Amino acid sequence: MKLVPTSLLKNAAIAGLCLAAMNGARADAFAQAVLVVDNFRLLHSSGAAFKSTDFTMLDGTNSAHATASLDGVVLAAKPQNRGILSGTSPDVAHQFVGLPNPPRAENNFTAFSGPPPVPGTFGYADQNMTGSAMTIGTKEAGVRAETRADASLATDGEAAGDSDVGTSTSFNFTLGVGETMTIAFDGTPFTQAYASTGAGMETNAIARLSWSMNIMNMSTGQVVFAYQPGELNSFGNVSRTDSFPGMSTYNPGKMSFSAVTPWLNKVDTYQLTINQTTLANALQDTVAVPEPGSLAIFGLGLLGMSLLARRRK
User: Does the keyword Ribosomal protein apply (predicted)?
Assistant: First the structure.
């Protein structure tokens, strides 16, 4: 009987065991949410932008926050608050945990190209806001508010990454002349969720957006106007799970929005509030059960080790 060389048996055994390890069950999860609101303005019925001088009383703040986390490690930017008449707007530093580090440069609101493969293992959040909803002095009206959140898991085992970011504007005002107010802006929403085939139990990816505006009459406590377009809210909520793997994407492109408030008098004080939030969450709970192919390769590895032991005897 012709004997197989010892070196060949040894190499075959090692290769078999390595391939088995490499081909174990793997689950990846990824979610990203980006919302860009541009040229947001408060307009008279004539179409001209409101000026700060059109109000007999006007004060309030623009606020922003960003939080990123991974496996229980949480990084949160110190919330920023800027007066609406201050001439400055919040720009929260991007927050990130994991690798690559950082996943995106500061104030980069371009979505990742769709997985697979996922772009890393991290939680990420960023925010930026410029401009004003009304004309202040010589500065023309027009707000650009950008928010993004990403959660990416490219590792086996149990891990969680989530990220959220928000911009909020709230101010009180009394009009100099009673009239309606028109809200006009452009919005570009993008959400994407991915879970790999063969993902472990409870693996999921969720991406969602939220944008809303309301006006409350501070004298009566009643909400007189509420606007929450579905294209920037429920339509953009996407998810994938271990029982429904693959990728879901919401990418309608740039859209224009407008709405007209009821009559606002010049006597009462009103509070206008705008909230913009993006959130991404990924959870991976992988049970390390080898696939059939892995078991076969692992068996070859063990057989090689067995033959090697017999030869030594």
Answer: no
182 φ, ψ to 5°?
-105, 135
Q: Are residues 200 and 141 in the same domain?
A: yes
Both 197 and 162 in one domain: the answer is yes
Residues listed for the chain: 313
* pLDDT for residue 295 is more than 80: no
Distances (CA, A) of 40 to 36, 37, 144, 184, 272: 11, 7, 7, 6, 14
Q: What pTM was computed for the model?
A: 0.83
Supply angle C-alpha 65, 187, 275, rounded to 5.
Answer: 35
Domain span at 92: 25-289
- Predicted confidence at residue 1, as pLDDT, reads 47
Q: Among 125, 110, 123, which residue's Cα sits nearest to residue 153?
A: 123
* Position 26 pLDDT exceeds 70: no
The answer on pLDDT for 24 being more than 50 is no
Going from the C-alpha of 209 to that of each of 89, 138, 271, the distances in angstroms are: 21, 33, 23
Same domain, 14 and 128: no
Angle formed by the axes of helices 292-312 and 6-22, to 10°? 160
CA distances from 178 to 35, 47, 55, 108, 141 (A): 33, 16, 10, 41, 21
Residues 172 and 57 in one domain: yes
pLDDT at 161: 61
According to the model, what pLDDT value does residue 236 have? 95
Q: What are phi and psi of 292, to 5 degrees?
A: -55, -40
112 & 210 share domain: yes
CB atoms within 10 A of CB 219: 12
Same domain as 66, residue 149: yes
Instruction: Quote the number of domains for the chain.
Output: 2
Residue-level pLDDT at 164: 77
Dihedrals phi, psi of 13, to nearest 5 degrees = -65, -50
Backbone angles phi, psi at 234, to 5 degrees: -60, -35
Query: Does residue 298 sit in the same domain as residue 196?
Result: no
Q: Which pair of structure tokens corresponds to residue 283?
A: 């959870």
